[in-house]
Amino acid sequence: MNDFIDMFFNPELILKVLPDLVAVGLVNTLILAISATLIALLIGMLIAMALISRHRWLSWPARVYVDLLRGLPVILTIFLIGQGLPYMGVQPFGPSAYPYGIVSLGLIGSAYMAEIFRSGIQSIHHGQLEAARALGMSYGTAMARIVVPQGVRNVFPALTNQFIGIVKDTSLVYVLGLAVGERELYRIGQDMSQRVGNLSPLVAAGLVYLLITVPLTYYVNWLDKRLRTGKVPVIIEDAVDTTESEGAHA
Question: Any transmembrane segments, and where (predicted)?
Fold first, then answer.
């Protein structure tokens, strides 16, 4: 029992690695996750709109994109993008592997975000789009002001869950060979564990991950419950009311 505690929960090693985990690992993990999520949200929405398009020249490439990035292992995609582009001489971000890790996670996340957005948008009754068109709104305006906001609201818990997944996937960016100051939580814990021959630093890294993911998980559950019971304010009705007023004045 003592050997088990010493191998996984050595307090001296945990306290020793904790400053680097917080000052370097946590900061880089959040930068990687938040930056990748922003990319995923932007591209994911564009891909989602292409998926629901009536034009096959838009929907088919979007479907291939989603199936490809969702079907490949995350670590393989990160390596192919993060190492493949520099090997080909394509270095828009310079020699550092850090931005390539962000782009890789963003592209992977965008495939999942696209399906989440698509399901949310298609869950909105088609009658709302028809009503908006009847009020004189164009298709694009009706989608942007009426349908899409409601769809995003419905799938917000799923989007938050995807962010949690991206936070955990940042642990795979180590395959790109990050510099010392660019290491995320997992790599810092792994490096020290290899030096001291003890897994306590990795356990410490895991605990920091839990400090991020567990509160977010409970938040998702709380938000999902609020959405199901209708206790989250609905702002979309304001857009409809505004449109109706504009139509009346016209």
Answer: 30-52, 64-85, 202-220
